[in-house]
Design brief:
Layout (H helix, E strand, L loop, with lengths): L8 E5 L4 H13 L4 E8 L2 E9 L15 E2 L3 H16 L8 H4 L13 H5 L20 H10 L16 H14 L3 H13 L3 E2 L22 H8 L6 H12 L13 H5 L8 E2 L1 H12 L11 H7 L4 E4 L6 E4 L4 E2 L13 E4 L5 E5 L4 E7 L9 H13 L1
Antiparallel strand pairs: 1-3, 2-3, 2-12, 4-6, 5-6, 7-8, 9-10, 10-11, 11-12
Helix pairs in contact: 1-13, 2-6, 2-7, 5-6
Length: 392
């Protein structure tokens, strides 16, 4: 193993969490971390707030306190909080048909799909069926219209499958219709502004200068090669096409080739392109644990309990792994634990970034980095979680 000198680590860490600081530092010297931020709050108090490394693959620009990075699917948990806040306010209803708010959605046998089913990845819409042209990637209306018009891949509510890229458009269009604002605008007004959280959909040009480059450890591959490596054929052509479309229709939707472009950073693609800091993610989960920040109400006790209860569990039709979901949140499961508590909830992002909360420990956690790992369970993330719980 190549051992390199770790970069300077900046920020604050309570003495009690010294082992976590050591683990964060060791990720750079032993596991080839490029740049990262880590934040932990306990009972609303920030006990760890660290950052280090570099914001570019060439390792020439230091990662600073306000460096933003593409969080990939960590943002799905943020979208879930936003939808829950609208449910709490009465702007959306959990068990009402989606078509009540979005009438066009009721086409092709989808009239009875509820918001609950959609949030739990059970709507049967993990992909756009129709092959979309490249320019559709940044055309919100076009993608939402395609999803509204198509038939589900399975009978809604009878199974679940990870809506890897469509989740953000489906939930986001409901946010847009309920608030008459874009997802980014609603997020700022309802969540991130009141919580003081650095997290965005649709970055303003002034913020592009502080975004970290996402460094991949493999060359950009053609879609066919990406598909073959990630999902070997099953022999079921319809299923294989569904999964391929989930990740690569339209081209660039998963952010593998597009993540470092200005167009991607400026767009609103809520499943995949939220940009933020680890501190911002931890702030959001800390506020959610309390039902919202001071002066704001995101979710009362009953809705929070419902949000983190099991809504879908078992074989996932898209990932071909076991998965477990609440209302938009990933829930702890043996194959991919979120911390040490069975009541922990949150969301991983591609390659190992993570935002979550542990109600038993009063804990909120954010870890964002710019070199995604290649494994389902990133060793860097696992090391941080192991060290964190050793400190409690």
């Amino acid at each position: 193993m190549l051992i390199i000198s770790p970069p300077a680590i900046s920020g604050h860490c309570d003495a009690r969490f010294g082992a976590l600081r050591e683990a964060f530092t060791a990720n750079f010297s032993e596991l080839d971390e490029v740049g990262a931020g880590l934040c932990v709050q306990i009972d609303g108090m920030r006990v760890v707030d660290l950052w280090g490394g570099h914001r570019d693959a060439a390792r020439t620009q230091p990662w600073t306190e306000d460096t933003l990075v593409n969080a990939y699917s960590v943002g799905k948990g943020v979208v879930a909080m936003l939808v829950l806040a609208l449910i709490e306010r009465g702007d959306l209803a959990l068990d009402a048909p989606v078509a009540r708010t979005w009438p066009e959605f009721g086409a092709n046998g989808k009239h009875a799909i509820t918001l609950r089913t959609l949030l739990a990845h059970g709507a049967g819409l993990p992909a756009v069926r129709k092959r979309m042209p490249d320019e559709a990637l940044y055309d919100w209306g076009r993608l939402c219209a395609a999803l509204a018009a198509q038939a589900p891949y399975w009978e809604p509510g009878t199974a679940h499958g990870y809506h890897v890229n469509t989740y953000g458009f489906l939930a986001g269009e409901l946010v847009r219709r309920a608030t008459r604002a874009s997802v980014g605008e609603a997020l700022a007004r309802i969540l991130t502004g009141p919580a003081g959280a650095d997290f965005y959909y649709g970055l303003a040009p002034r913020d592009h200068t502080r975004v970290a480059e996402t460094a991949t450890s493999f060359p950009v591959l053609r879609e066919e090669a990406q598909w073959a490596l990630a999902f070997p054929p099953t022999g079921d052509a319809e299923h294989d096409r569904m999964v391929w479309h989930a990740y690569f229709n339209p081209t660039g939707i998963s952010g593998l080739e597009t993540v470092n472009t200005a167009e991607w950073r400026s767009a609103v693609i809520p499943s995949t392109n939220g940009h933020g800091t680890a501190r911002g993610v931890a702030n959001l989960y800390a506020a959610f644990l309390r039902g919202g920040p001071p002066g704001a109400r995101w979710a009362g006790d009953a809705l929070r309990r419902e949000a983190v209860s099991i809504q879908a569990d078992g074989d996932d039709r898209v990932t071909r792994r076991a998965s477990r979901f609440g209302l938009g949140f990933q829930l702890a499961q043996p194959s991919r634990p979120i911390g040490a508590s069975p009541r922990a909830f949150g969301h991983f992002g591609y390659g190992g970034s993570l935002g979550f909360a542990d109600p038993d420990a009063g804990l909120a956690f954010g870890y964002l980095m710019n070199r995604p790992g290649e494994r389902w369970n990133n060793p860097r993330t696992e090391r941080l979680l192991d060290a964190l719980y050793q400190c409690l």
